[in-house]
Amino acid sequence: MKTINDFNFKDKKALVRVDFNVPQDDQLKVTDNTRIVAVKPTVEKILNDGGSVILITHLGRPKGEVKDEFSLKHILGEVSAVLGQEVKFVDECIGEKAEQAAADLKPGQILLLENVRFHNEEEKGDAGFAEKLSKLGDAYVNDAFGTAHRAHASTAVIAQYFPSTKYFGFLIANELKAIDKVLKSGERPVTAILGGSKVSTKITIIENILPAVDNLIIGGGMAFTFIKALGGKIGNSLVEEDKLPLALEILGKAKEHKVKVYLPSDAIIAESFSNDVERKEADIYAIPEGWMGLDAGHKSRDQFNDVLLNSRTILWNGPIGVFEMSNFAGGTVALGESIAEATRLGAFSLVGGGDSVAFVKQFGYADQVSYVSTGGGAMLESLEGLELPGVAAINN
Fold this sequence. Notes:
The protein contains 15 helices and 17 strands. By secondary structure, it is of the alpha/beta class.
């Protein structure tokens, strides 16, 4: 893996593709700077070498139009604060203005280019646009794992203009190492927890990870499709009727790979999808008509805990209950606690996927696991075994 450790950036201008597509409030102030903090080590390495940094990113979905709400000038203050120095800004990313701003950049300085998605050519993966961007720097660094699954001009195409000076930043390198640890080099037993609402969104992930894992915990709404396929009565619980044969097929493949599959044995049930309703615990194979399962029950939590505390490598993707409603967050909180305890005991734990990441941040578990992925779609595609365009562009 070619990382920035393989190059000395002294007197070089590094074009660094980052993912600063950060959440903002009504006043366009940044509400979560995690993605900016994540690239700080990469920026610092280049500056410490005596180089300068030109940051390339997108923000939102302006669809090729210049829209003030998506201008990077609104996040400039936060970027400067996180990186610990004044970051210069140019309201273009190609053309004379951008070229002059890049030319004026001195070693130790940082320049933020305007939103690349103000140009249609970015998402089209236009080579001409990528070439114009490439003229601004001497080396290309991809540190945007969150967009590595897109074959866009600044995430993949631009690399061809730096045949010998293209590298992974520390963030993307760490992401790839974490995924590799789960799929290839992790200490066994390896346990994967897949939650969320639908089996259909996780099929390719399940098929790809079966050869790599020892245990598979299936929770959340998707568990009910498996329970019904096995003959259970699930009341009004969420189910994908057309995926019942697939659920049995997956269980059969798991058996072939000698993977132990753990489904919830009980559930917290309610008569409607609402936080403030009567709740009770039920055998997950015998949920009464008119009731639906909204969280894993206490027996399930204990069983999952036992599996996790005996694991050495853990992948978590997807909650096992409707954690957005406080009365149905208990199962996912218990799971978070089990993973944190396993991590304290020496296991490697990787958390990825939008809802899981949102949970660990909201409930304070982000610092209690080994690695929290910054790329939802990119991580899921990696787990599916797909080569990401942004990764291939550096490797090839």
